[in-house]
């Protein structure tokens, strides 16, 4: 599923028009699809108010109100702008609404809005769409304020009024939806930490724009279905060397668990062989937890002997850690994943990454990415898509920017988004487990981007499954996720044994 900016959505609409799809037809499709989506959240006994503004979103509102009335729901269509603001395709659908025997109510003042809300159980926002620039003007601002304060179910079409479609906007006033029916493709703001909550829950409805004529977008969601489609299979005649020989460089005397969890997660994900390079004093703590792994000395480890290397977890941030990561970056010939403490010390020699010929994968959370880029965490959270793309292109790396919406970016700028997982993952060790899964996937996948994207989904989807099966988001541990991987693999592919 593509993820679009406001401009990219406009280009899709234009492409559809050039292909002969009339705007009135697309508006009919959008309104009817949204209406049938929204009624899943509405009871027949509910009294519904549909707030209708100018532009395409308002036109969708007329179709939604007509569809609801045709289905036997009790709905009022309230136009919040003067008649002269209803133009083009929206005006056509207003005429159809009235010709169908329905009355368009008018918003006049604050008291009027309060009256509508007092007799409503459900509010549907079809006021403003992707064209919002700057803060809301009246009457939208007052209506939004009263809707947000009212005790009713708030639904929205495409995106809630006032929410910017794109990233980079910090301050805004918006309708606080409980659920949003997104038209055709999710916009960037559906995945940003400060704007996503205004959508509530959301899903996408398709409105008939032919994919063949839609301009290409190199930004998409990666789902469980994509994992099923691309997950490497295991041949009946394969052996341990067929599934990747990986090296985990991590852990220390005071932080042995990080390397242990990364290694166990890699093995649970299907790696054939895993070796661990850690401090000698940490071996007794790690070996009982990962009995299948072997150990090598950091001073004599042969980096060229492995199909993939994961480094940085639990190594500390001192001079020794810096020297270790520098050595790994400059001497590893195969794919290299750097995580956790490794990202902290990496900043001093980021330029070395450009000289690597094999894939480099960095897996920061927003704080670590802010450290790498010299930006503030707030900047990262406001504009994660553009900052991640610029960084990945600049240094020629695959960047896994972790969060509730994890953004995976390839060196050429293509991006995937994973929205699986839950707040139980906001706990120490979750990143270590993810690093192990990614290590296996980068060793086994034909496409590096597909493999990393699938690894993120495997991690988040497993966390969701474990919570559904008895754990809570409060007590969920990274080790629970690791031990939940077998169940995930069983459900995803019958070819995995």
UniProtKB/TrEMBL annotation:
Organism: Halobacillus kuroshimensis
Protein name as catalogued: Bifunctional NAD(P)H-hydrate repair enzyme
NCBIfam families: yjeF_cterm, yjeF_nterm
Enzyme Commission identifier(s): 4.2.1.136, 5.1.99.6
Any Pfam family matching the protein: YjeF_N
Necessary cofactors: K(+); Mg(2+)
Entry keyword annotation includes NADP: yes
InterPro entries: CARKD (IPR000631), Nnr (IPR030677), Ribokinase-like (IPR029056), YjeF_N_dom (IPR004443), YjeF_N_dom_sf (IPR036652)
Keywords: ATP-binding, Isomerase, Lyase, Metal-binding, Multifunctional enzyme, NAD, NADP, Nucleotide-binding, Potassium
């Amino acid at each position: 599923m593509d993820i679009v900016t406001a401009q990219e959505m406009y280009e899709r609409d234009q492409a559809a028009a050039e292909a002969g799809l009339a705007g009135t037809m697309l508006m009919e499709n959008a309104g009817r699809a949204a209406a049938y989506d929204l009624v899943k959240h509405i009871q027949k006994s509910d009294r519904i108010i549909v707030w209708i503004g100018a532009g395409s979103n308002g036109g969708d509102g007329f179709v939604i109100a007509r569809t609801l009335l045709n289905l036997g729901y009790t709905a009022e269509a309230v136009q919040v702008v003067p008649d002269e603001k209803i133009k083009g395709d929206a005006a056509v659908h207003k005429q159809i609404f009235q010709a169908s025997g329905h009355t368009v109510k008018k918003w006049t003042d604050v008291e009027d809005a309060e009256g509508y809300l007092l007799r409503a159980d459900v509010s549907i926002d079809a006021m403003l769409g992707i064209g919002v620039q700057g803060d809301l003007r009246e009457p939208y601002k007052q209506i939004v304020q009263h809707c947000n304060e009212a005790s009713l179910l708030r639904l929205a079409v495409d995106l809630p009024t006032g929410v910017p479609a794109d990233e980079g906007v910090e301050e805004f006033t918006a309708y606080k939806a409980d659920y949003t029916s997104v038209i055709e493709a999710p916009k960037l703001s559906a995945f940003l930490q400060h704007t996503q909550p205004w959508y509530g829950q959301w899903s996408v409805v398709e409105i008939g724009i032919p994919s063949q004529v839609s301009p290409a977008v190199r930004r998409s969601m990666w789902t469980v279905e994509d994992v099923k489609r691309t997950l490497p299979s295991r041949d009946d005649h394969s052996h341990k060397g067929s599934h990747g020989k990986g090296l985990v460089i991590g852990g220390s005397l005071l932080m042995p668990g990080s390397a242990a969890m990364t290694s166990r997660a890699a093995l649970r994900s299907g790696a054939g062989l895993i070796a661990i390079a850690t401090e000698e004093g940490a071996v007794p703590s790690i070996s009982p937890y990962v009995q299948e792994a072997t150990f090598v000395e950091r001073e004599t480890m042969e980096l060229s002997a492995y199909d993939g290397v994961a480094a940085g977890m639990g190594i500390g941030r001192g001079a020794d850690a810096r020297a270790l990561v520098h050595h790994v970056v400059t001497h590893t010939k195969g794919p290299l994943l750097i995580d956790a403490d490794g990202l902290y010390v990496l900043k001093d020699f980021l330029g070395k990454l450009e000289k690597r010929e094999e894939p480099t994968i960095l897996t920061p959370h927003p704080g670590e990415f802010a450290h790498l880029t010299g930006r503030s965490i707030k900047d990262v959270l406001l504009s994660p898509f553009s900052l991640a793309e610029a960084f990945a292109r600049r240094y020629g790396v695959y960047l896994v920017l972790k969060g509730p919406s994890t953004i995976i970016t390839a060196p050429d700028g293509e991006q995937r988004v994973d929205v699986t997982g839950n707040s139980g993952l906001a706990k120490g060790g979750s990143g270590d487990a993810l690093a192990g899964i990614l290590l296996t996937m980068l060793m086994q996948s034909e496409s590096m981007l597909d493999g990393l994207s699938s690894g993120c989904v495997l991690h988040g989807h497993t966390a969701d499954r474990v919570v559904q099966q008895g754990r809570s988001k409060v007590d969920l541990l990274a080790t629970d996720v690791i031990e939940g991987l077998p169940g995930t693999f069983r459900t995803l592919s019958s070819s995995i044994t």
